[in-house]
Amino acid sequence: MRVLVLRAVILIAGLAAWEIGARMANPLLYVPPSAVVPALGRLLALESYPDLPSSLLLTLREIVVAYALAIAAGVGVGAVLGLNRFVGRAYGPIVAALYAVPAVVWYPSLMLFFGLDAASKIAFGFLLGFFPITLAVLAGIRQVNPHMIAVARAFGARPAVVFAKVMVPAMLFTLVGGLRTGLALSVIGVIVGEILGSKAGMGALINHAYGLFRTSDYVALVCVTLVLIVGSDAAASLIERRAQRWTE
Amino acid sequence: MRAGERVRVLALQAASVLALLAAWEGVARAGWVDPLFVPAPSAVAGAFGRIGRSALAGLGDTLAKTAIAYALSVVLGVSGGIALGSVRALREVLNPFVVALYGMPKILVLPWIVLLLGFGTAPAVLYGTIHGFFPIVVLVAGGVRDVDRTLLGVARAFGATTWQLYWKVVLPAIVPTVLAGMRLGIVFCLLGVLIVEMFAGVRGMGHVLNSLANGFQAPELFAATALVSISSIVIVLGLDALNERLSHWRS
User: Fold this and answer.
1) Topology of domain B51-250, CATH
2) Would you say residue A206 has pLDDT above 80?
3) Between A118-142 and A107-114, two packed helices, what is the crossing angle to 10 degrees?
4) Is the minimum CB–CB distance between A28 and chain B shorter than 8 Å?
5) Closest by Cα among B64, B28, B63, B62 to B45
6) Does the beta-carbon distance from A106 to B12 stay under 8 Å?
7) Is the separation of the CB atoms in A141 and A87 below 8 Å?
8) pLDDT averaged over every residue in chain A
9) Distance from CA of A100 to the nearest CA of B (A)
10) Any idea of the CA torsion for B58, A127, B218, A197, to the nearest 10 degrees?
11) Is B3 touching A (CB cutoff 8 A)?
């Protein structure tokens, strides 16, 4: 209880300090909370940015496509690397080494190849989501008890059946964790791509507000984007918890 | 891994990379892909020479900023983590804020940071530090919290001062966590610096990559991308090797 009160006090004190400091220094640059609220109202009333719904929808669509591609490719590649020990030994380290590269270095090449439209954002969101999913599938397969596979095989299950009925349930926990990280990274990839260069979507609106020095609109747009990001993560954590209960 | 298998794995790795390069070269030569967007490996290799000096200067600039950001995030992250991990009240009150800031996509505050600090070194260092700081602080706080209570109790019973407690018991116990944090942090710091250079850079590798892409200089762009990727992999593998050696030395 005391902890909750202290947290609330810190939050309120922080907001108050921000408000006072911003007003004293430069309200345009530091955007006090009191300026954010009306800006948020104007944004949600579609006054400042009438194309907010279409931008949100575009960003959402890019995320969905990028994430779906990342799941398909990540599960496929992870399964191939995990199911064949030799292939895994050979290509696993290559995947891990590529994961050690800050992914943003690929973005200019993707932009050159796919252009400024949605495709380059989808490609970057896909790339970011692909690695954690692949590595989670790989780690998950390695932790499956080999005896269970041997028994299933002895009873004549085909490899696809073994994968779906024995391995997926056994590694569900790791898999779902990887899928959640993958979603978070796909979302970030799409938004980073939009902010680094785009013509439409939430990132483009943010860049527009920032470029015109409409700082309170910028903060309002950031708030809306945050809701999108936090919402997607909350949905993912709900699914994760359900999967957790199912495995227990 | 047996020696025979290791040789076979290495052979397969080398053969796959060579086959990929050869196929790519063949596809590019046959004109199946537009060389404007996907240049042949031979063209990329040639581009290394052309961009050599400017790319190396950019890389040096980026790595210098990353080094500063990394030093800051390790020092701040480890000390913050020790404070959060050892003071229970502090941890309970501040934890949700740290988690929220850690989870928040930092890209959203990037325009604001650039607005405040302008173009150049300062925003890159700050943004890189923010990226590296949070994973380190969270890991180290967890590591300190999980230090064996009996060790602390025994040390206290033998009359250790608080200073000795931290220096002789806590610090050695969290070395693996700190190393794991440092391993994670370096990639994040480099990522942060590169993003700022791409968004609002006038120098550095991110700026080089961006201007090559805007100029449709695909061979040079691919060469520069390869250069950053290889240096990043070398740094991470170096840290891994150091980690391994230290863990040998510890046990």
Assistant:
1) MetI-like fold (1.10.3720)
2) yes
3) 130
4) no
5) B28
6) no
7) no
8) 89
9) 6
10) -70
11) no
Q: How far apart are CA B112 and CA B123, in angstroms?
A: 10
**Is the predicted pLDDT of residue B132 greater than 80, yes or no?**
yes
Asked whether the predicted pLDDT for residue B134 surpasses 90, the reply is yes
Q: What is the pLDDT of residue B41?
A: 85
| Residue pLDDT, tens place only, B93-125 | 888 888 888 888 899 999 999 988 888 889 999
Domain boundaries defined on chain B: 51-250
**Residue type (1 letter), B102:** Y
Is some CB atom of chain A closer than 8 A to the CB atom of B15?
no
Cβ-based neighbour number of residue A182 at 10 Å: 27
pLDDT classification of B69: cutoffs 50, 70, 90: very high
Within 10 angstroms of residue A202's Cβ, the number of other Cβ atoms is 27
* CB–CB contact B105 A191 (8 Å): yes
Enter the tokens of residue B41: 């490996």
Using CB atoms, pick whichever of A94, A206, A229 lies closest to residue B111.
A206
The answer to whether the CB of B165 falls within 8 A of the CB of B155 is yes
Half-sphere exposure of B153 (CA within 13 A, CB side): 3
Q: With an 8 Å Cβ cutoff, are A10 and B206 in contact? A: no
CB-based contact A3 B97, cutoff 8 Å: no
Tell me what the pLDDT averaged over chain B comes to: 87
pLDDT in tens, B209-233: 999 998 888 889 999 999 999 999 9
CB contact under 8 A, A102 and B1: no
